[in-house]
Amino acid sequence: MKNKIDAFMDLVKERNGHEPEFLQAVQEVAETVIPYIVKHDIYHGKNILLRMVEPERLISFRVSWVDDSGEIQVNRGYRIQMNSAIGPYKGGLRFHPTVNASILKFLAFEQVFKNSLTTLPMGGGKGGSDFDPKGKSDNEIMRFCHAFMTELYRHIGHNTDVPAGDIGVGAREIGFMFGMYKKLNNTFTGVLTGKGQSWGGSLIRPEATGYGTVYFAESMLSTQSDSFKGKNVVISGSGNVAQFAAEKAIELGAKVLTFSDSGGYIHDEDGIDTDKLKFVMHLKNEKRGRISEYVDKYPNAKYFAGKRPWSVKCDIALPCATQNELNGEEAKQLVDNGCICVSEGANMPSTPEAIHEFQNAKILFAPGKASNAGGVATSGLEMSQNSLRLSWTRKEVDARLKDIMEDIHDSCVKYGKNEDGSIDYIKGANIAGFVKVADAMLAQGVI
Ligand SMILES: NC(=O)C1=CN([C@@H]2O[C@H](COP(=O)(O)OP(=O)(O)OC[C@H]3O[C@@H](n4cnc5c(N)ncnc54)[C@H](O)[C@@H]3O)[C@@H](O)[C@H]2O)C=CC1
Ligand SMILES: O=C(O)CCC(=O)C(=O)O
How many CA atoms lie within 13 A of 252 on its CB side? Predict the structure, then answer.
């Protein structure tokens, strides 16, 4: 089996040798899906996985815009349309200086499996730009978003490709991009998700990724008759996913101890309650400040510059910042400190070495493509509401989100159960995500 996986990876490396994040994501899938393909005749001789690692379309374009001092700035924009076998391309846009083809291809590849797991008809895509929103004025953000959409608009559409937010892209940016799309097309359609309530957005979409990550962890804990109640929780990040993961964990009776950003992390031994969380939301979403400012407001807490929060003793860890933010040593420290459950809110936050530590220790571990799928699932619900020209209540969308997360958990159990009864959620998510897309590709022939 190892030979087959190595031979496949050699082919992928030949074409994508300079894209380490993409190779990391493909390797993880290949290790679990190739053994499944080998056991199932219908996939033989079809090169399905080889087709799945090649984007259907990779679009790269210039984004020129004028900053507040009148200087012309040039950034690079991308959209990776990875796979449309089961529905229109769907996935977020990331604005961050580290954005490049490797990072977006890994995210687009993960998105194909994730979207398949949601049970909704969505293909996979991802996009963004190396634009850095940090320190930019609202007017600069608007001019950049407008410029970005003057090219992207020709490649997307409510039945073709429906982008949404990701790192650096929230409600403000979606608003500016939606405005320019509408102007250029002279149509009002659900071409983006994460829209504002009064112009086609869905209730619960802002909360969905964080809530879903906690719902998934709660499902994993329930297999061991356990729950969030009374648990200590360590969270990384302090953006959209981190904030709402914290909100749900607090609601379920847990004590949240940390938040972080690219500067460092804060540790509040007293616990971050709903009032303190409101402060973080204002700090990050309105003031656009740094997490270090938390300790000015709450001096009992400590700030650790340049550090990540994984040395803090906890029962549950929720990595919600970015890829490869939790390495092997940090994973070992979490396990040694008694952590029993890791649910990824971010995409690929754990390195392969970290995953190895979690699996060796046999703790509950959920890969992002399963545990953070609540965001895109609720985007799918936003698309349904837009098509129906209806708005569902908060209660209704939350109930659907919860059901979807439970269904994803069931699929992982179905495909990931080991002989000893334990559940390999990576194997389960990869195979369950693969089967639906692969079967659609088989039915549609070689295209
Ligand atoms: N927003 C969504 O609906 C979804 C987001 N995700 C993933 O969740 C993660 C977080 O995304 P959002 O919360 O939406 O973005 P965001 O822009 O709201 O927040 C990102 C957070 O990560 C922190 N961060 C960025 N780079 C960092 C670094 N190098 N070290 C430490 N912290 C860093 C930022 O300071 C910020 O707190 C990403 O991996 C994203 O792909 C996954 C599924 C859906
Ligand atoms: O809601 C969406 O379409 C984007 C979600 C996303 O980018 C992700 O799941 O990583």
Answer: 26
**Span 170-180, pLDDT tens digits:** 999 999 999 99
Given the residues 90, 105, 114, 126, select the one marked as catalytic. 126
What are the angstrom distances between the C-alpha of 250 and each of 93, 233, 254, 400? 29, 9, 5, 21
CA distance 349 to 231: 22
Digit-coded pLDDT (tens) for 109-144: 999 999 999 999 999 999 999 999 999 999 999 999
From 195, 241, 379, mutation site for ligand 1 pocket: most ligand atoms within 8 A of C-beta: 241
The reply to whether 126 belongs to the active site is yes
* Interface confidence (ipTM) of the complex: 0.98
Q: What is the largest CA-CA distance in the chain?
A: 65
Helices (H) then strands (E): counts for the chain: 16, 13
The residues that bridge with 157 in the sheet, in sequence order, are 161
CB atoms within 10 A of CB 139: 11
Distance 399 CA to ligand 1 centre (A): 25
Q: At what angle do helices 425-444 and 101-117 cross, to 10 degrees?
A: 90
Q: Which residues line ligand 2 (CB under 6 A)?
A: 90-92, 111, 114, 164, 166, 193, 347, 372, 375-376, 379
- Give 165 Cα–ligand 2 centroid separation in angstroms: 7
